[in-house]
């Protein structure tokens, strides 16, 4: 909660400060105005999903690596302050391994026909089946940040940056991998069994009344785009270093972190995850006349 409040405060401050700096810049003599820089960049991202409610569907997710590419335009206000706008494609998400709620719609429908007869609760979204497998959320966004940068130096320049961003989700996929038995409990102690079609109470040699279903292949790619909110709003903080390679050209390195203020799921049953990550980028910028 502290992290979210800090990013919100930074984002609001940047939005309030940007118009003021632009207004001051209007009084600068034309000969003193700084050039506009355009740039391209590519980088490596570590996306993650966080849910403070310890939801069974979203807990224990770890960072997922991906790519981050984009274009940017930087407006210099003075020697210290710049405003930078960007359009970025970024790959977010998370991974989870081990016992977790399992995709089992067909199996659940079959089990729910006889579970009440043996005094067991129905399988529902709130009371799912569990299995031991790997799961990965892969969520692609177009993100548009507006950042305030404070920089020092000329030929070699260091800067810090902060500001809000808005993200538009392009697609989202849940990838599952592995083979596993199904269980009624997260600890994996109560294995799912089904009625034995060969059971004959008059002939015990045909086996018990219920038998395990055996390990099932859980490998699948499931489109979950409609289950998640399309728009995500958040904040960014970061730092960077640039080096001039000519009168108008420079190379730069960036490291930044982001956090989404909006929970991405529509249905709170499946969690209230916030998406964010850390991005490391290398880019090239060119100063326009």
TrEMBL record:
Q: Which organism is it from?
A: Urechidicola vernalis
- Tell me the SUPFAM superfamilies matching this sequence: OMPA-like
Q: Where is the Outer membrane protein beta-barrel domain?
A: 22-263
**What is the protein named?**
Porin family protein
Q: Which InterPro entries match?
A: Beta-barrel_OMP_2, OMP/PagP_B-barrel
Which keywords does this Swiss-Prot/TrEMBL entry list? Signal
Signal sequence, start to end: 1-23
One Pfam family it belongs to: OMP_b-brl_2
């Amino acid at each position: 909660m502290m992290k979210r409040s800090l990013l919100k405060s930074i984002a609001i401050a940047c939005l309030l400060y940007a118009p003021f700096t632009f207004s001051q810049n209007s009084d600068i003599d034309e000969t003193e105005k700084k050039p506009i820089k355009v740039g391209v960049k590519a980088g490596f991202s570590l996306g993650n999903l966080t849910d403070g409610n310890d939801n069974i569907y979203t807990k224990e997710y770890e960072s997922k690596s991906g790519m981050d590419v984009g274009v940017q335009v930087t407006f210099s206000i003075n020697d210290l302050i710049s405003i930078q706008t960007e359009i970025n494609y970024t790959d977010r998400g998370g991974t989870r391994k081990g016992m977790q709620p399992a995709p089992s719609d067909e199996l659940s429908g079959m089990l729910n026909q006889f579970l009440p007869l043996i005094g067991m609760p129905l399988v529902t979204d709130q009371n799912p089946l569990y299995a031991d497998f790997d799961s990965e959320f892969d969520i692609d966004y177009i993100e548009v940040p507006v950042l305030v940068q404070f920089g020092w130096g000329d030929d070699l320049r260091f800067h810090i940056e902060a500001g809000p961003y808005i993200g538009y989700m392009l697609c989202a996929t849940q990838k599952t991998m592995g083979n596993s038995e199904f269980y009624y409990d997260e600890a994996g102690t109560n294995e799912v069994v089904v009625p034995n079609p060969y059971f004959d109470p008059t002939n015990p040699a045909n086996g018990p009344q219920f038998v395990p279903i055996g390990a099932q292949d859980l490998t699948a790619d499931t489109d979950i785009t409609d289950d998640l909110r399309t728009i995500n709003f958040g904040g960014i903080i970061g730092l960077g270093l640039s080096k001039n390679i000519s009168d108008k050209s420079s190379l730069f390195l960036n490291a930044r972190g982001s956090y989404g203020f909006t929970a991405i799921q529509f249905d709170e049953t499946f969690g209230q995850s916030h998406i964010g990550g850390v991005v490391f980028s290398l880019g090239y910028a060119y100063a326009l006349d």
